[in-house]
Amino acid sequence: MPSGSIAVTTPSMECLTQMIRLDNTGFSRLPRPSFLRATPLALLVASAAVLMGQAAHAQTAAPAAEAESKATNALDSVTVTATRRREPVREVPMQVNVVPSEKLEREGAKKLADYIADQPGVNLTSSGTVGGSLSMRGLTTGPSQTIATVGVYIDDVATGMSSAYALGGFTPLDMGMLDLHHIEILRGPQGTLYGAGAMGGVLKYVTNQPDTTEFSGAVKFGASSTKGGGSGFNTGLMLNIPIKEETAAVRLSAFSDRVGGNYNAVGPAGGTNVDRGHTEGGRLSLLLTPTRDLTIRMTATAQEVNRRGLGFEDMTIATGRPVYGERTRFLSTGEPYKNRTTLWGLDVEYDFGWARLNSITSVQDVKISNAADISPIYAPPLRSLGYPVVSVPLGSNVDQHRTSQEFRLTSRSGQTFEWLAGLYFNRERGNVAGSIDANLAGGLPSTNLLVTGKPNRYQEAAAYGDLTWNATSALSFTGGVRLAHNKQSYSDRSTGLLVPGAPMTNGGNSSESPTTYLATAKYALDKTSNVYFRAASGYRPGGPNGLKPNTNRNVVKPMYESDSLWSYELGYKADLLNRTVSVEAALYDIEWKNIQQPIRDGGFSFFTNAGDARIKGAELMLGWKPNRDWNLSSSLSLIDARLQTDAAGLQAKAGTRLPSTPRVAASAGITRNFNLAGRDAYVGVAARYTGKRNAGYEGSTVAPSINLPAYTMVDLQAGIEFPRFSIAAYVRNLADKRGLVSAEVGVTAPTQALVALAPARTIGVTMTVPF
Question: CA-CA distance, 4 to 24, in Å (whole number)?
């Protein structure tokens, strides 16, 4: 039988974009499942919410600024480290949003999808209640995404993987509420400071540092109930233990979150709340300041996510209604999921006075194991070959290891010339072991159809720097550059019943030296407002293609190249009316070149560069704090993202909209603080709107699309503080709206789509006991 292949992307493996190759021509004609990520959790709305983004501290502001804020009922000062310097967010010449942990806790947020829910233009698609793909400003190719377009950091430590063959590397770290201080969202390419994988932006988890002055702690208990689903419970503990005042302290935190589930299944593997499970995590942070100029911070973070199954619904495309019932699908075999992440970090900082030196070392390990039911696609052809197939599970085990070292020297602020220079070294290795088995009827043993192993390695070295010229007290210019060199290798070994003859092995090597640039100009209109222009470039690494002997080398090259972009942004930031009103507005134009995408030749899947895209957008964020008791906020994102030239691998024509991104998304919220029986209390309402999107590309058979309708979610929050504890209550999706987050066409049947939905109405309460 001639040789061919199947490229498999499965529901549970959507976050991995696993490519498993079989050796049987009959199967190469089968439809290729490729799990779409069509989720923007963005928004429009009426009047509502608890955004407090610009009204809450992102890092400790100067005491004088805090005093001024309280005296005038003004919006609080917000300090961030977005540009690797500590500076007020209003002074940063780009769009930076800050999400305080206090806001997240009040809203009952527990995962990344919750954290960015009211951030228009920031989208997280779902791979069935776990994982997903994170994008900003429409920079995504949806189902064919190979490498992350958004960098995810914990403090100054990068997470994730850089190679397209480190499958699952683009799945963002979904960190629980593990002693977070706030989250910083940096929009636009950050290539000069944050490197590859940050061409669309950066999401930064900023954690609390140990306090050397006093012992403190907190215990948290929470419970929630989801309509049509199970009950959830969560607990948390934080301890801050001073060892020696002004010299040493340790901070411990841990949490456990039981998820009740909200999806059901019918069929041989049917059941209720099949996506139930639990998440646990812990974090240790040690702070040492042996001298006034030397600071050492060591951290260790571990988190494990377990789910009994994934959350999807079988939906009829023509009607948009469920096939088997709300949040229900047909399952022939179970889909357990497990993801364990550990991260070690060491940040040594020395202040010379004229400059600050940082040495940042990190070690990351990620292990993912899961299964997916691919029976609807692969059982019928197997039965036609004579196999009495009951179910066909796809199993996958992903093992990733990453070590990095960064040296950064930052000049003192407030000078005519300010500069920053750094070196970055990164080593990664990973392996994806996949298998396809046929479970047979009549008690016959399972048939091992395919076993694959894909070990891969990635190395990178980079030098970067920027220089700021403060030409006058109002006008400044910044230029930056990052020079990098990376090399990769991978091999692919396949065996099994569907691989005739000897095991099939192929692989490849590659190297390249991309460069990214930054240029900004900022002008202060007065002491509380400024305008800026920012031009920045970004890229994602290319890699090797493991060519076969009969591969058409006119179609597939030995190496696919990095794709790159230039982003141009014009912005305005201001605190107005005695700092009671904040305004942030931006217009941007992104030109994306040589887009990475899969391509098939001879039944095998490879990668190629094809097509360009242009993304034009606008963002507006408003905050108003008229007095101590009221806090209002709103935000709006408008995005037009389209291909400029044909993208052959996607089978998409010029003019086609990019997937997963709504044209319009918005949020709005209002919080009222008041006194109840002598206790501080609050109540708030928030609304978020997600506009229409495409779940793929119009006219494409590789990544076919359906339209995802717009939806609006409304949330409520309320809380009260007592002398020894506080209580917070919340309702998410008050009206229990049906919101389609992502959809995949043709996975279960030609007329059906497999969809992930926004969470149903959830009611919860949390009690916090500080000490």
Answer: 5
Q: Which residues contact 319 (CB under 8 A, 6 or more apart)?
A: none
Structure pTM?
Answer: 0.87
Question: Residue 57: which pLDDT band, with cuts at 50, 70 and 90?
Answer: very low
Using alpha carbons, select from 463, 469, 437, 465 the residue that is nearest to residue 450. 437
374 contact partners, CB below 8 Å, separation of at least 6: 8, 10, 33, 392, 393, 394, 436
- DSSP per residue over 25-85, as a string? HHHHTS---------------SS-----GGGS-SSPPPHHHHHHHHHHTPPPP-EE-TTSS
> Do the Cβ atoms of 315 and 752 come closer than 8 Å?
yes
- CA dist 154 and 172 (Å) reads 11
pLDDT of 171 reads: 73
Mean pLDDT value of segment 748-753: 84
Band (pLDDT 50/70/90 cuts) for residue 535 is very high
- pLDDT tens-digit series, residues 238-288: 999 999 999 999 999 999 999 999 999 999 999 999 999 999 999 999 999
Q: Which residues contact 542 (CB under 8 A, 6 or more apart)?
A: 510, 512, 559, 560, 561, 562, 563, 596, 609
Q: What gap in Å lies between CA 33 and CA 24, rounded to an integer?
A: 17
Q: How many CB atoms lie within 10 A of CB 531?
A: 16
C-alpha dihedral, 624 to 626 to 631 to 636, nearest 10°: -20
Alpha helices in 630-753 (DSSP H): none
What pLDDT is attached to residue 382? 84
Indicate the helix (H) or strand (E) that contains 490: strand 475-495
Q: What is the residue-averaged pLDDT of the chain?
A: 86
Residue 643, token pair as written in the block: 């291909």
The CA-to-CA distance between both ends of the chain, in Å, stands at: 71
